[in-house]
Amino acid sequence: MEAKRLYQPQQNLSDRIPVIDLAALQDSHVDESERKRIIVDIANACKNWGAFQLVNHGIHQDVIENAREQARQVFELPSETRWKAKREQGSLSGYGNGPVIGDAVDDKIVSEAITFGYPQSEAAVIASKLWPNGNPGFGLSIDRYNADSHKLALTIMRLIVEGLQPRASLAHFQPYLTEQFGLLRINHYPVSNHPARDIGLPPHIDDTLLTIVHQGSDVEGLELIKDGEWVSVPPRRDALIVIVAAVCQVITNDTYKACLHRAVPNRNKTRLSMVYSAYPPVKITITAAPEFVSHTHPPLYKPFTWSEYLRGKVRHILHPLDGLQSEKKDADTQNPYAKSSGKGSEPLQDRGMRSEIRSY
Ligand SMILES: O=C(O)CCC(=O)C(=O)O
């Protein structure tokens, strides 16, 4: 009999993950009251879950399916061919098993991934390494999905900012709404004979503004933390999952918390997820918006630039934001993700829910 996985996901919470419908925003004449309702729903989802499912998001289903189909072909190539497109040091694009910082790099991780930067995806170059006889459809499909995801990320970020309470002036957030760069990561999780032992991706928060995941129609695997419990996100062909990430937490001074999540492998089916990460501009200083700072609620994180963050100066393995915390935050709490689960209030990492941050 298969061993039980430590911390089984709470299926009863799965169908409570908020589903936000953006249909009203796709009309040429957007009804302002509908728009406001969407903004409020997104704000509540960000506050209560740090994640939500998004339907009628505006990315055409064919664009999604074409990108998935092309990506699927990569993982059917022989291993030595896949490695011909290896992601080189300093590049955002290429094949690999995904650098995972810290002690999560171990033989239990069964996933592999191919990544494409945005706006420079190098998808056509990668295609020429994987298919020397040509595969023009690959670059076109990947680039289209990447571009549409970028556009959607900007829309979502704007809706998030508009829904912030207290109401925030757009000035502080302008660079995050206009100068994002992106990374499309396509994860492949082979069938696992030991799903109780193997790890798809270890628990982590994303080091970005937000993440948009398409996990396909039939194989579940994405799980997120809600009130100290793992919750499995139901796969939906038509839905994208939006996940709040670390930079959103910093600029809102903890009003929105980055969502801890993980991917688990499946015993019967391979799984493919397409994950678009929206990054802040490289050069700006990332700091809390003034509306979220007061005498009683000083900045919880020291200002930092994205390049400083990537240089590792402030990177921390278990709690990526720890190295950034101001004295106030240090004094208040050592672990922003530690929540009582009803089974005791020990920090998540002590219960086997180690948080990692993945970077590129
Ligand atoms: O495969 C998934 O559903 C999640 C992937 C993920 O968390 C990531 O790539 O950071």
What is the fold's blueprint, element by element?
Elements: H1 11-14, E1 19-21, H2 23-26, H3 32-48, E2 51-55, H4 61-74, H5 79-82, E3 94-96, E4 112-118, H6 123-130, H7 136-162, H8 170-178, E5 181-189, E6 201-206, E7 210-214, E8 222-226, E9 229-232, E10 240-244, H9 246-251, E11 261-263, E12 271-279, E13 285-286, E14 304-305, H10 306-310, H11 327-332, E15 356-358
Parallel strand pairs: 1-2, 6-15
Antiparallel strand pairs: 2-10, 3-4, 4-5, 5-12, 6-11, 7-10, 7-12, 8-9, 8-11, 13-14
Bound molecules: 2-oxoglutaric acid (AKG).
Residues 185, 187, 201, 206, 213, 215, 221-222, 261, 263, 273, 275, 358 line the site of 2-oxoglutaric acid (AKG).
Family: Belongs to the iron/ascorbate-dependent oxidoreductase family.
Keywords: Iron, Metal-binding, Oxidoreductase
Domain Fe2OG dioxygenase: 180-280
Structure description:
The protein is of the alpha+beta class and 360 residues long. It has one domain (11-358): Jelly Rolls, CATH 2.60.120.330. The chain is built from 11 helices and 15 strands. The chain has helices spanning 11-14, 23-26, 32-48, 61-74, 79-82, 123-130, 136-162, 170-178, 246-251, 306-310, 327-332, and strands at 19-21, 51-55, 94-96, 112-118, 181-189, 201-206, 210-214, 222-226, 229-232, 240-244, 261-263, 271-279, 285-286, 304-305, 356-358. The chain has an 8-stranded mixed β-sheet with strand order 1-2-10-7-12-5-4-3. The chain has a 5-stranded mixed β-sheet with strand order 9-8-11-6-15. A two-stranded antiparallel ribbon has the order 13-14. A hairpin with a 2-residue loop joins strand 8 and strand 9. Helix 6 packs antiparallel against helix 7 (136-162). The longest helix is centred in the middle third of the chain and has 27 residues, at 136-162. It is globular and about 60 Å long. 2-oxoglutaric acid (AKG) binds at residues 185, 187, 201, 206, 213, 215, 221-222, 261, 263, 273, 275, 358. Belongs to the iron/ascorbate-dependent oxidoreductase family. Keywords: Iron, Metal-binding, Oxidoreductase.
